[in-house]
Amino acid sequence: MKKSIVALGILFGTTGLIFAQEKDSIASPNSKTKDIEEVVVIAYGSQKKGEVTGSVGKVNVESFKDRPIARVDQALTGQIAGVKTRSTTGKPGEPLEIRVRGTASISANNSPVYVVDGMVVDDIANISPDDVQSIDVLKDAASTAMYGSRGSNGVVIVTTKKGMSGKPSFTYSQYYGVQTIEKKLDIMTSTEWIDYVSEAINKRWVSLAPGHLASDSYEKRAQYFNLANTTDYNLANITAMVDPRWGTDKVAYIDWQDAFYRPASIQNYQLAVRGGSNNVKYAISGAYFDQEGLALNTGFNRFNLSAVIDVNISPKWKAGISLRPSYSKSYGAAVDGKDNEAHKMLSMVPVAELSAGLYTNFWKNQRYRWAGSTVSPIGVLENTTNNTNEFRLLSSLYMSYDIAPGLNFKISGGATNNFNINNGYTPTFNLVTNIPGQVSIASRRTVNYNRYLGEALLDYKKRFGDHSIAAIAGYSAENYRTTSQYNRNRGFANDDLQTFNFTQSASVLNSEYTASEWMLVSMFGRVNYDYKKKYMLSASIRRDGSSRFGWNNLWGTFAAFGGAWKIDEENFLKDQSWLSNLKVRYSWGENGNNSIGEYRAFGTLAGGNYSFGGALSNGLIPNTIPNPDLTWEKTQSSDFGFEFGLFNRINFTADYYIKKTNDLLLQQPIPSLTGYTTMWKNVGSVENRGLELDLSTKNLTGAFKWNTSGNIAFNNNKVLQLGSSNAPIYTGFSGLTNIIQVGQELNSFYLYDAIGVLSSADIANSAVAKTSGAIAGDVKYKDFNGDGKIDENDRHIIGSPVPDYYWGFTNTFSYKNFDLSVFFQGQKGGYSYALLGRAIDRPGMGTTTNVMGNWANRWRSDAEPGDGKTPRLDGTTGSLLDTRWLYDATYIQLKNITLGYNFDQDLVSKLKISNLRLYVSLENVWRKDNYYGGYNPESVQSDGTDYGAYPNAKVYMMGLNFNF
C-alpha cells in the first residue's frame, strides 16, 4: 500500500504548483469547459468529450510527432491509463503487444481491434505515423460493444489527416538517427572464463589418478594421454588439459556482444500535400522508413503511400475513397529466441584461434578445441539469407446520402490485401567436412491474405428543445481468406546461387499448401440521448454470426448501456468559474471473442496410410473431434467513472472497472477412449478489476509554459473457474514454469524456490531438505511442504507476470521558440522469467560454452562460498527450473527527451517555406531495472518467459519539419 501511495504522489505531485501563481492568472470568468469540448472518436462516429458516457482515452499527434517510431502502436506507450504496451522484441518492424485493461482470455486473442478512419482493419502496420491525426482507445464495454465480437479487448481507433479547402499545402518531414544497444548482458570475460574452465579441467585431472596436481604442466598431461605431438592443440584432451596459451597473445580474446551488435542508423522521410475546394478535398502522402538492426545484417524498411479523397457530389450526396499501399522488407537471420543466433552468441567461448578470430568453426576454420561445436554467429549473420517482402493494400470507399435533415444513409466497403513472401537460404558453413552446397537449405514461403468488409449505416440526429437524440443502425459482412505455400529443400550443387529449381535438390524437407476461410455477419444499433447536456444516456446492441463456431451456436448478441451526469451544469454550480468540469458516469456491457482460429468446432482430417489390396495407400483420417456447441467467449464489463476539472488547468479522471470473461475457449482433455485426447470447449472464467487515474495540469501559463500529464493504472487479474473439475493448466517452458489455477493470476510462476547454496554441514545434516543425490555446492531449495525432502511437491506459486501498476508521466516546457518534452514510463511489480539466463547459467553445463558473469562468484568450497547464490560448476541441480532466474519486472524508464526550435516566420518566409522546426530527440534514454537474465524486462512472452529477445535500442536523432 505504501508503494502505491508513492506512485500516486509521483502522478499528482506537480498539482500544487498551479496554486503558487497569482489568483487572477488562474481563470477568467468565461473560460469554463474548454477541455471537455475536445472531440473524441467513438464507434461509428464522434462526440464531444463532455458528452461521452463511456471510458475513452486519446493520444494527440503532438505527443509522438518528433519521436523515432516505426509503427503507430508505439505511440500508445505510457499515454493512456489502462493501456499496457510491451516491446516483446527489439527487432526492427515488429509490433508491440497491447493489452487494454488486462488479459481476459487464455487461448483466444487478447489484442484490441483496430479501426482506421471508420474501417475495421487487422492491424495498423502500413499506416505511417506521420499520417496520423489522433488515436482514440475505447476501453469499457459501453464504448466497445458496437464492435461486438472484436470489442472485448478494447478498440484502437486511428484517425488520419484529411484534405482541406484551399490551395495545396505541402509538408515535408525527416529525421536521421543512430541506434546503440541499451545494455549488454553480464557474461564472463575471457579472463573469467579461463579461470572457470581451468577449475573444472584441473578437478577432472586431479581425479584421474593419484599424484595428479592442479599445477601439473600441459606436457605432463599430454604424456599421460600418449600425445606425441604436444604442439598440435587440436589433439588435446580438453576434459583434463588446459590450453597453455591462455593469458598470452597466441590466441584471440573476443567480446562477442561487441562484435554481434553494432551502431545502426534509423531514418524517415515523408512528403505530403493537402488541399482542395469546397467540393473536393484531398490528402496525398508518401513516406520512406529505414531501420538497420543492432544485430549484424538485420533490418527493416518500408515505403508508404496514402491517398484520401472526399467529394461533395451534391448538397445531399457525398463520396470518398482511400488507398494505402505499402511495401516493406525485413531481413536477417533469426536472432532472438531459443537456439537462435543471440542465444548462440552469448554462449560462445570468448577465446579462439588467432587465425579464425570471429569466424571460428566457420568455412574452413576448425573450431577452437576448448569450445563447443557452434558455428560462428558472426559468419551466420553475414551469410544467411532470410528476407521477408510484404505488399499491403488497405483500401476503402464510401457513399452517403442525406435522406432528410438529420437523417443520413451511408454504404462503405473496404479491403485488406496482403502478399507476403519469405526467401531463405542457409549455405554450408562447415567446409572442413563438407563441400559447398552439400547441406545447404533453401526455403520459400508465400502467404496471401485477403479480407473484405461491407457496411451499411443509417444515422439519425435530432435536437428538439433541451433534448438531443443520435441513433445509428447498421449491417456488416466480412470475409477472410488465407492461402499459404511452403517449400524447404536441402542439398544443392553449390552455394554460388540462392535461387534454385527445388526439384534439383538432394532432398525435400517440406512441401505444404494450406488454405483457410471464415466469415462474420453483424447487425447493430445504438441510441444516444442527452437532456440539457447534463444527463446523458446511451444504449447499444449488436448481433454477430461467426463461421468459426459450431452449428448450434453461430450467433451471439451483445448489449451495453451507459449514463453520465454533468453535475457542473446544474444551476447551483453552473456559474462557478473555478469549476470547469464535474461529471460522473457508469456503463455496463457485454462483448464477445471469436479469435481462436478456423475450424476449431469441426472435425478435420489429416493424411494417413492404410492397407488397400495388400499395398500401402495414402488416405485421410480424422484428427480432431467436432463440437457443434462451441460458442462465443463472453466478457461482461462494468465501469464507474469520475471526471473533475478546475480553472481549465487541472483535469482529473478516475475509472474503476470490473471485467469478467465467461465461457473461455479452451482445449480440454477428454477420455482417450473417444479416439482423441483434447477437444475445444467453453469452460472457465477470468476476472480483471482495476483502477485508472489520469491527470493533466497547466502548471505555468505565462511566457514560460509548463504542462504535465500523467496516468497510472492498477489491475488485479484472477482465474475464477476452469471447467467442472477446476484442474490446473501447466504452461510456460515445457509446462514447467507457469500454472493457470483457480484463485491465482493468469500464468502464475510455479517453481522451486532457491534460497541459497548447500554447505558440507547442510549435506551432513539430515534435517536440511535436499534433492536426491545432492552434494555440497548444490542449490538449496525451500522445503515448501515440509516433508524433509526436495521433489516435485515443493514447486509452488511465486508471483506472476502481471504488474501491480504501470504508469506514464510527461512534462512539456516552452519558452519563446524553444520547447522541451520529457517522458517517463514504467511499471511496478510482476516478474520476468529468464529462460535465456537459465540456458547459460546453470550447473552441469560443461565447460565448452560461456556462462553468465555471476559464475565468477560461484561456490568453490565451504571456505569460498562465493555470492551465496551461485552453486558449484559441476552441481547436480541443473535440470530444475527455480527462482534463480525469476526477476522482479519493476522498471522506470526515461523514454524520450525532445528539444525543438521553431524558427521565426519572418526568417523562414525568405526561403519561401513556413513553420520550419528543427529538433533533437533521444529515445530509450535511460532505464533502471532489476533484470539481469535478458536484455529487457518487457521482452517476455504472454507467460512472462524470455528466451533471449532482440535488445531494444537507444536512439539519438535529429529531425526537421517545414511547410511550403
- Biggest β-sheet strands, sense, barrel: 22 strands, antiparallel, barrel
Work out the helicity level: under 10%
Give average pLDDT, whole number.
91
Radius of gyration: 31 Å
Fold and architecture overview:
The protein contains eleven helices and 46 strands. The N terminus is likely disordered. It has a 22-stranded antiparallel barrel. Strands 3-8-9-6-7 form a five-stranded mixed β-sheet. Strands 33-34-35-38 form a four-stranded antiparallel β-sheet, with no helix packed on it. The chain has 964 residues and is mainly beta. The longest helix has 19 residues. 8% of the residues lie in helices and 46% in strands.
Summarize the helices and strands and which ones pair or pack.
Layout: H1 2-12, E1 39-42, E2 45-48, E3 56-60, E4 83-86, E5 97-100, E6 113-116, E7 119-121, E8 132-138, H2 141-144, E9 155-160, E10 166-181, H3 190-208, H4 218-224, E11 251-253, H5 256-260, E12 264-276, E13 280-292, E14 299-312, E15 317-331, H6 341-346, E16 351-353, H7 377-383, E17 385-404, E18 407-426, E19 441-464, E20 467-490, E21 507-531, E22 535-546, E23 555-566, H8 571-574, E24 579-593, E25 605-612, E26 615-622, E27 633-646, E28 650-662, E29 665-669, E30 678-682, E31 685-701, E32 704-721, E33 729-731, E34 738-740, E35 748-751, E36 754-757, H9 760-764, E37 779-781, E38 796-797, E39 805-815, E40 818-828, E41 831-834, H10 835-839, E42 886-888, E43 891-902, H11 905-909, E44 914-929, E45 945-946, E46 953-963
Parallel strand pairs: 6-9, 41-45
Antiparallel strand pairs: 1-2, 3-8, 4-5, 6-7, 8-9, 10-12, 10-46, 11-16, 12-13, 13-14, 14-15, 15-17, 17-18, 18-19, 19-20, 20-21, 21-22, 22-23, 23-24, 24-27, 25-26, 27-28, 28-31, 29-30, 31-32, 32-39, 33-34, 34-35, 35-38, 36-37, 39-40, 40-43, 41-42, 43-44, 44-46
